[in-house]
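JOB MANIFEST
job_type = single_chain_structure
chain_count = 1
residues = 48
[input]
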Amino acid sequence: MLNLIAKAILGFLFLVRLQEEEKLLSTQLAGYEEYRRQVRYRLIPYIW
């Protein structure tokens, strides 16, 4: 049970990190917004 809770917490933190990284790249990397428009799925094809 403890293992499941740890995996859920780590999964949640991974998703939060991904969202924060997207925001950072969007604001600080020139051309990233255009890349985001062209590449819909950047992590897992057809899912994320």
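[summary]
The first helix runs from residue 2 to 28.
Residues 26 and 33 are 6 Å apart (CA to CA).
exit_status = 0
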